[in-house]
């Protein structure tokens, strides 16, 4: 359990058993934890005084020792296409003013919230703007769930009306599987019927390919899995996604198929960023189809989103469409991700937040010249 600066326990992000033992420590019955969860997540309530079905003295005791505290908002932006982006405070160990980003993408019939899992990222993918920031720290479960809590509030979600956030994707800043300890309880709250009650298909974790953690996830939690593949062979992927030098494509795909087996036949989505002249040639599509054909796999082609200082360019639209068509002809399901919110730098790979104090863990550099051993 994490204590806030004020010495109060932040109830956001506590797992059900943790919350039960917390209320027990205050002398309350375990079912009070269930009531509290409903208030916090379903109704978005943070004021214990308004949790009217809890005894008054219990409410007063809670107000003394606990709080429901999401991250503070630094700035909020809205795109012309309806996409919203929030910059949220995520202070460094020394209290440095750092920030992470959360993005809401409205679409007909659904609303997707893209949340962050770390302040910065250590995995150093060549084409990602978060990578340029380096890594500072993991987010707590409270900060991860807090992004959903806050977005619901900012979007004016009515607890008795239709859901505003229907899907959550861990596709913001950070590598979620590198912060397993906080990400797992946060995802469980998203799927808990007393939490956000999202079905397992509506919570998606995207990873750059941390193979051991994919096996672990297969045992712990069945969310939808997305994998940032981006290249059809190791030579190319080693340069784009440096973790590939530790866990090459063969191992990664094996882990994906294992995950599917444990999760009863859903498919894995493979993200593939379209980089002009780098990974977008017909032979790359052929090679990719060879890897995936016959498996429950979907390819999501992401037009590259540019950012200052990058050496990459987005593949031209006809090249992206041709790549998709080639995959389809080879029997591999493929779609093109529509870019949203790029006028407010909210598109894939453009989230950079504010990472100070960085420890400069950049995997690409660390891996150069070392002999690869898992
Ligand atoms: N670290 C996790 C979660 C990030 S998800 C992962 O790598 O999967 C964000 C997705 O956008 C990933 O597939 C990522 O590779 C992709 N991406 C990163 N930079 C991009 C860019 N500049 N343009 C388009 N997509 C990008």
Concise synopsis of the structure shown:
With 374 residues, the protein is of the alpha/beta class.
Describe it for me?
This protein has 374 residues and is an alpha/beta fold. The protein has helices at 16-25, 31-42, 56-65, 141-154, 180-191, 211-220, 234-240, 249-262, 282-292, 317-329, 363-367; strands at 9-10, 66-67, 73-78, 84-89, 99-107, 110-114, 118-120, 135-138, 167-170, 203-207, 224-228, 268-274, 297-303, 333-336. The strands form three sheets. It has a ten-stranded mixed β-sheet. α6 (211-220) links the parallel β10 and β11. It is globular, with a radius of gyration of 21 Å. It starts with 8 loop residues before the first strand and ends in a 7-residue tail after the last helix. Mean pLDDT is 91; it is low at 368-374. The site of S-adenosyl-L-homocysteine has 17 residues, from β10 and β12.
Strand fraction equals 15-25%
Largest sheet: 10 strands, mixed
Amino- and carboxy-terminal Cα gap: 31 Å
Shape: globular
List the helices and strands and how they pair.
Layout: E1 9-10, H1 16-25, H2 31-42, H3 56-65, E2 66-67, E3 73-78, E4 84-89, E5 99-107, E6 110-114, E7 118-120, E8 135-138, H4 141-154, E9 167-170, H5 180-191, E10 203-207, H6 211-220, E11 224-228, H7 234-240, H8 249-262, E12 268-274, H9 282-292, E13 297-303, H10 317-329, E14 333-336, H11 363-367
Parallel strand pairs: 1-2, 6-9, 9-10, 10-11, 11-12, 12-13, 13-14
Antiparallel strand pairs: 3-4, 4-5, 5-6, 7-8
Helix pairs in contact: 1-2, 4-5, 6-8, 9-10
């Amino acid at each position: 359990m994490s204590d806030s600066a004020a010495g109060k326990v932040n109830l956001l992000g506590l797992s059900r058993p943790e919350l039960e033992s917390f209320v027990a420590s205050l002398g309350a019955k375990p079912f009070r934890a269930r009531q509290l969860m409903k208030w916090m997540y379903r109704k978005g309530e943070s004021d214990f005084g308004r949790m009217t079905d809890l005894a008054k003295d219990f409410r007063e005791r809670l107000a003394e020792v606990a709080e429901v505290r999401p991250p503070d908002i630094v700035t909020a932006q809205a795109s012309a296409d309806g996409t919203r982006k929030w910059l949220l405070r995520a202070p460094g160990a020394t209290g440095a003013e750092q920030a992470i980003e959360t993005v809401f993408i409205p679409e007909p019939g659904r609303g997707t919230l893209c949340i962050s899992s770390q302040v910065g990222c250590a995995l150093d993918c060549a084409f990602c703007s978060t990578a340029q920031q380096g890594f500072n720290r993991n987010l707590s479960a409270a900060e991860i769930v807090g992004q959903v809590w806050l977005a619901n509030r900012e979007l004016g979600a009515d607890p008795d009306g239709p859901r505003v956030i229907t899907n959550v994707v861990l596709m913001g800043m950070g590598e979620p599987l590198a912060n397993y300890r906080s990400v797992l309880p946060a995802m469980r709250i998203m799927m808990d019927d007393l939490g956000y009650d999202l079905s397992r298909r509506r919570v998606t974790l995207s990873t750059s390919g941390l193979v051991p953690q994919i096996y672990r996830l297969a045992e712990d939690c069945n969310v939808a899995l997305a994998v940032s593949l981006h290249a059809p062979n190791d030579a190319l992927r080693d340069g784009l996604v440096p973790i590939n030098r530790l866990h090459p494509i063969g191992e990664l795909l094996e882990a994906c198929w294992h995950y599917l087996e444990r999760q009863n036949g859903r498919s894995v989505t493979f993200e593939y960023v379209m980089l002009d002249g780098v990974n977008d040639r017909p032979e790359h599509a052929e090679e990719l189809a060879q890897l995936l054909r016959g498996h429950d796999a979907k390819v999501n082609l992401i037009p590259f989103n540019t950012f200052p200082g990058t050496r990459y360019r987005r593949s031209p639209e006809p090249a992206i469409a041709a790549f998709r068509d080639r995959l389809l002809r080879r029997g591999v399901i493929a779609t093109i991700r529509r870019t949203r919110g790029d006028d407010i730098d909210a598109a894939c790979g453009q989230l950079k937040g504010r990472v100070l104090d960085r420890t400069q863990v950049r995997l690409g550099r660390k891996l150069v010249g070392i002999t690869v051993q898992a």
